[in-house]
Amino acid sequence: MKKQKKHDLVLAEFDGVSELLAAAEKIRDAGYKKFDCHSPFPIHGMDEAMGLKRSPLGWMVGIMSLTGAALGMALQWWTSAVDYPLVIAGKPFFSYQAFVPVTFGLAVLFGAVTALFGMLYLNRLPKPWHPVFFSENFSRFSDDAFFVSIDTDDPQFDEKQTIDLLKSIGGGTIEHVHEK
Amino acid sequence: MSHTEHNKKFHEPPLIENNPTFGSITSDVSGLVEARTPLPWYLLLAMSVSLALLMFGMIGYLIFEGVGIWGLNVPVSWGWAIINFVFWVGIGHAGTLISAILFLLRQKWRTSINRFAEGMTIFAVICALIFPGIHVGRIWVVYWLLPHPNQMAMWPNFRSPLVWDIFAVATYFLVSAMFWYMGLIPDMATLRDRTKAKVKKMIYGFLALGWRGGNRQWKHYEMAYLLLAGLSTPLVLSVHSVVSTDFATSVLPGWHTTIFPPYFVAGAVFSGFAMVTTLAIIVRKIYKIEHIITMSHLDKMAKIMLATGMMVGYAYSIEFFVAWYSGNEYEIFTFVNRALGPYAWGYWIMITCNMIVPQLFWFKKFRKSIPVLFVASILINIGMWFERFVIVVSSLSQDFLPSSWDYYKPTIYDIGTFVGSFGLFLTLFLLFVRFLPIIAMSEVKGVLPQADPHHHSQHE
């Protein structure tokens, strides 16, 4: 079996929100693609600064909600009008007005399940192993620290140039993290 | 104009007091989970678990003996079980309103209270689900409520509001639980990164799912949060509307009214905010987090209670007007009987607690007074329980035929189950405040002035 290529990266710490945002813009302009900005909370405007596209999650949720609604209505139509037709209060077998609450409930349920699990899928979570976790300093990201990480397999990556770039835009505590 | 400048210009108080930093929020909130368990917590837990056991004992006896142990009689075939169900589901609504509607309306103050309000929602819905679950009589076939292929070749009647209810409340529970868990993921990462104990690190690490706070993750996370808020918003309005159709689609005077859905939703939000206020006052005092859940939060919640209380009061009045205006003798009788009949005491408790007590919140002095807020919020919850009691019992006990009239009295088993459900609610709440962060740390950090990228600079 071929040994899988090790996944390494370079980490740099930044002082605050505006510094991280400015750094992201410069790294984007330098042509890097495989980099990320880590922060304790989402930062307004960071998607643009990093040059990221809008999340496709909305489409996934919309399509799954409509699927849920269609399945809900189909379930009620098939059970009430086809498989077990029963006259109740003189109403038609397919009394679709009365089927709206269940249809709506299933639309919301399918959409919500897709929102949570779609988000996890797009983020490739759960994934408890990652090179960043081998940095002792990085554990402060969930408290009050801001980091940039650049993957070594980015086509632009060059050990010296990348570290120089990070230094020139104000990055501190630069570390080369190896997956162990 | 940035948020900070906006606050300065309009003299709005800061959302979080004492000039917090990102680090102080982390240590203030995580500190509560990491500190030694305080002694009163054990005492409270022992009390709540005892009450919860009382409820499970009552349920055990109910399954053994049957619903005959309850105070139900022939005209009043729906008693405390449905009242308690509506009561608990209603309480949950404030959590969803805070987490979903206030999020969409960009009400940044919600971040201090949304975590435990959402927790309260989930625990309240668990308590609510118990009652319809146990009242079915033959509890071992309770799965018949759900559509499933079976040897009898039967399906549920989807025209029945009771079936709508199962779908509405089950969806509500699942969506609230998923929303809550998603909000917890970044905070679980914080606890994971702070703890040194190996087992705790594993548990929090497992729950954090490997969260590393990269913007490529936040991008999808924020979108998922927005979508869940968007999906939960109609739930706030629909769940209690569906619950109200359990009554409104029947032909019983006192139930058969089109005002029920909005009236129930307003009442649900009203009672939910009262419960959030009660719990917030206790939690901020015990854990000394008055700078995170500030007086301004309580002030805003009091205003919401005033507004929804007025809506509920309006519904009470319009019901009377419509009964008179309809000219229907049975309808008129039912309403006059509510105010002057055998259950008048319950009616007037309801009017006092729900219509008169919230009027205090017109005055800033009372909105700023912790004792007034605390007592009023409890009175409102009592009033809202009596509202459901009045709707259910007074309409049923004197129906069309005077020969079938009967006075309804609960038995010790009714009371034990209801009191015990508070034990279950408090047990779950105590476990939550002990082991999980009660404030959404990542969200609170996001509304601090220094989280605004333009905080220091002048350009926009």
Describe the structure.
The complex is a heterodimer of chains A (180) and B (460). Chain A folds into 2 domains: 9-54 and 132-177, no CATH class; 57-122, no CATH class. Helices cover 43% and strands 12% of the residues of chain A. Chain A has helices at residues 17-29, 46-50, 57-83, 100-122, 159-168, and strands at residues 9-14, 35-38, 146-151, 172-177. Chain A has a 4-stranded antiparallel β-sheet. In chain A, helix 3 runs antiparallel to helix 4 (100-122). The longest helix of chain A has 27 residues, at 57-83. In chain A, 39% of the residues are buried. The model of chain A has no long low-confidence stretch (mean pLDDT 89). Chain B is an all-alpha fold and 460 residues long. Chain B has one domain: Formate dehydrogenase/DMSO reductase fold, CATH 1.20.1630.10. In chain B, 69% of the residues lie in helices and 0% in strands. Chain B is globular, with a radius of gyration of 24 Å. Chain B starts with a helix and ends in a 14-residue tail after the last helix. In chain B, 48% of the residues are buried. The model of chain B has no long low-confidence stretch (mean pLDDT 90). The interface between A and B is large, with 70 and 71 residues.
Identify the strand order in the major beta sheet of chain A: 2-3-1-4
Q: What's the CATH H-level homologous superfamily of chain B?
A: Formate dehydrogenase/DMSO reductase domain
Helix/strand order of chain A: EHEHHHEHE
**Helical amount of chain B:** 55-70%
Outline of this structure?
The complex is a heterodimer of chains A (180) and B (460). By secondary structure, chain A is of the alpha+beta class.
SSE diagram, text form:
The complex is a heterodimer of chains A (180) and B (460).
Chain A: E1 9-14, H1 17-29, E2 35-38, H2 46-50, H3 57-83, H4 100-122, E3 146-151, H5 159-168, E4 172-177
Antiparallel strand pairs in A: 1-3, 1-4, 2-3
Helix pairs in contact in A: 3-4
Chain B: H1 3-9, H2 22-34, H3 39-65, H4 80-104, H5 114-134, H6 161-194, H7 198-208, H8 215-248, H9 260-286, H10 295-326, H11 329-340, H12 344-356, H13 364-367, H14 370-397, H15 412-435, H16 441-446
